[in-house]
Design goal:
mainly alpha, 2 domains, 10 helices
Length: 267
């Protein structure tokens, strides 16, 4: 080792130059085989051993994340089932309220009332909001149990929730998390059709709502447009009802399999 590289190594060890600068000097001197020395410890961690007779304390390791725990989601599942059924019934009632009006103008007026009057909005939206929150809690806790019993999955417990809000990834990651639950808890093969049905209806509803917004982006200006808007609105309410019911079917199947798995594990 040349004198120049020795000096560079000492300066790197004292923290006077960076690792990249040392490597540049080493390469320029043609001594690429020289190992990079260990940098000096941070001054904040150095202790005068001669004065105190003690060594510097090692930095604290970061705290480990708590491991997911197996939990019984029966209570959450029951509350979720109630909220999903209520949401489905409310959606059907909205469609019926529109259909029973005596004239096209009255039906269009009912659609506008359901979309603009605060009281009616609260009645139609609140159950679905409650169902959404309970569903996300259920999915996270069920994934906690799956990880505790089966080990790490391709989607973490937290990811089973936050992937719904990540653009592009939300097209498949939430489905992957549900598939992990279905396969991990051993749901029978004859019920696996619920997965594509549930996910297809979910995105079908969203796509249909976007389509309605695009078709009527310039407003409703003619009687024919009003009639079409009424029909589309009724279809959307009924499709929402189906989505709520299918979501209950798949969450109930997962919960049943999950409870069976917990019993077999004596938990």
């Amino acid at each position: 080792m040349s004198k120049a590289i020795e000096i560079a190594a000492e300066r790197f060890a004292r923290g006077e130059i960076t690792r990249e600068e040392f490597e540049d000097i080493r390469d320029a001197l043609g001594e690429s085989e020289t190992a990079v020395p260990a940098p000096a410890p941070s001054p904040d961690l150095q202790v005068n051993v001669a004065a105190t007779g003690t060594q510097a304390a090692a930095p604290l390791a970061p705290a480990a994340m708590p491991a997911p725990q197996a939990v019984d989601v029966t209570g959450i599942s029951k509350a979720l089932a109630i909220s999903l059924h209520v949401s489905a019934v409310v959606s059907v009632i909205c469609a019926v309220l529109i259909a029973v009006q005596g004239s096209p103008d009255a039906r269009f007026g009912m659609v506008l009332a359901l979309e603009t009057q605060p009281g009616l909005i609260a009645i139609t939206v609140l159950p679905s909001l409650v169902a959404t929150v309970l569903y996300l809690v259920w999915k996270k806790k069920s994934t906690d149990t799956l990880v505790a019993l089966r080990g790490p999955q391709s989607v973490t417990p937290a990811g089973s929730v936050y992937w719904y809000f990540v653009p592009v990834a939300f097209f498949w990651k939430p489905y992957e998390a549900m598939r992990n639950l279905v396969l991990g808890f051993g749901i029978k093969q004859e019920k696996h059709w619920l997965m594509p049905l549930w996910w297809g209806i979910f995105w079908g509803n969203i796509g249909f709502a976007i389509l309605i917004g695009m078709v009527f982006a310039d407003g409703i200006n003619t009687p024919s447009q009003a009639r079409a808007y009424v029909v589309f609105s009724m279809m959307l309410y009924l499709a929402g009802s189906v989505s709520f019911f299918v979501t209950w079917m798949i969450t109930d199947a997962v919960t049943t399999a999950e409870r069976r798995t917990l019993r077999e594990a004596d938990l």
